[in-house]
From TrEMBL:
The chain holds residues 37 to 233 of 286 of the full protein. Residues 22-197 form the EngB-type G domain. The keyword NAD does not apply. This is Probable GTP-binding protein EngB. It comes from the Bacteria.
């Protein structure tokens, strides 16, 4: 499994300090607590990998991981909406996130994680609009799907699909659970496609 080759490369506080903008990159984003670290650890089968990003000082950093070679990368974007972060910092950080999404040439896809019980919050909509502006491929994960029964989970999936259509967004979406590993293969396939694996 190629995703197991994931290795931490570096953390960058802003776009102009990132690793060289070459090759292919797929970025993971979501509101804090959406299950991003768990998902990254789950798909790479490494319990500690995304823990570096969780240290307080690094929550505002862009964290880069190589996937077998430095030109195929996974990027862990800062979780958005930490209550502990002051408003001013949030604004600065929002700008950095926007810069990254709009200007990063090697970025070939965005994986946007949303808790299946709280989908499409303001932050999520903002990310989707930025991605649309840039024509960026987005794959949405409705995370913690194990928290709902199959019926209700499928209903959320359909509702979010409908809402995306209303927003004129043609993005792919799936249910995901780091706990039960639901949707793991589907995600790996999507990522392989975006990274030319
Ligand atoms: P992050 O802030 O987006 O990186 O979120 P974390 O990965 O740290 O997860 C936030 C909380 O949700 C933690 O308490 C996790 O144990 C829990 N969690 C994450 N993924 C799942 C999942 O697939 N199922 C369930 N039931 N809980 C999850």
């Amino acid at each position: 499994n190629w995703l197991r080759k994931a290795e931490f490369l570096m953390s960058a506080p802003k776009l102009n300090l990132c690793v060289e903008d070459s090759g292919f990159e797929i970025a993971f984003a979501g509101r804090s607590n959406a299950g991003k670290s768990s998902a990254i650890n789950c798909i790479t089968d490494q319990n500690q990998l995304a823990r570096a990003s969780k240290r307080p000082g690094r929550t505002q950093m862009i964290n880069f991981f190589s996937l077998g070679n430095p030109d195929q990368r996974l990027v862990d974007l800062p979780g958005y909406g930490y209550a502990a972060v002051p408003e001013e910092m949030k604004k600065v950080w929002q700008k950095e996130l926007q810069n990254y999404l709009i200007e990063r040439k090697s970025l070939t896809g965005l994986v946007l994680l949303m808790d299946v019980r709280h989908p499409l919050k303001d932050f999520d909509r903002m990310m989707l609009e930025w991605a649309k502006d840039r024509n960026l491929f987005v794959h949405i994960l409705l995370t913690k799907a194990d928290k709902l029964n199959r019926g209700p989970a499928s209903t959320v999936l359909l509702e979010v699909k409908k809402e995306l259509k209303k927003m004129k967004l043609d993005f792919s979406i799936q249910l995901f659970s780091s706990l039960s590993k639901l949707g793991l293969e589907e995600l790996a396939m999507v990522m392989a496609g975006r990274l030319n694996y």
